[in-house]
Amino acid sequence: MADRCQRHTRCSIFWRGDGSSPCTLCWYQRIFMFPLAIFLPLALFPLDTKVARYALPLALIGLGFAIFHWFLQLGLISPSASPCAQGSSCSEIEAEWFGFLTIPLMSVCAFALINISLFATFIQGKK
């Protein structure tokens, strides 16, 4: 079981679901998402409202990269602004579910949900 989990973790870090390597913007989003996967569960038991101080900057920067990536795929930002120099293109839509749900949009939703939760935790901690 542990070997299987390690294998899936390695796959999620270094490859996309289709076995190809992630684009540059996906790497940046992963850089800011994976520490949150460690910080946030640790802050739950026991509940530590101070985690927002450490996690909120990561979540806000990750949200910025996710929004930039999503706008790039939508064509709202010129493809010439893409940081992808080689390999997978950041502006290509390679996976789409239900006709609208792309990987950058899922990232925007995940980071937005984390940011809302952290802001609520931060405000709760101030009371």
User: What is the radius of gyration?
Assistant: 16 Å
What is the SS-derived class? mainly alpha
The total count of helices amounts to: 4
In which range does the helix fraction lie? Answer: 55-70%
Tell me, briefly, the overall form. elongated
Instruction: Report the biggest beta sheet as strand number plus sense, adding barrel if it closes.
Output: 2 strands, antiparallel
Overall pLDDT level = 81
Beta content: under 5%
Please provide the count of β strands. 2
- The first-to-last residue Cα distance is 43 Å
**From N to C, what is the helix and strand string?**
HHHEEH
Strand order of the largest sheet: 1-2
**Uncertain segments:** none
3D architecture notes:
Strands 1-2 form a two-stranded antiparallel ribbon. Helix content is 65%, strand content 3%. It contains 4 helices and 2 strands. It has 127 residues and is mainly alpha-helical. Helix 2 packs antiparallel against helix 3 (51-74) and helix 3 runs antiparallel to helix 4 (103-126). The termini are far apart. It is elongated.
Topology:
Elements lengths: L1 H13 L9 H21 L6 H24 L21 E2 L3 E2 H24 L1
Main attributes?
127 residues; mainly alpha; two-stranded antiparallel sheet; 3% strand; 4 helices
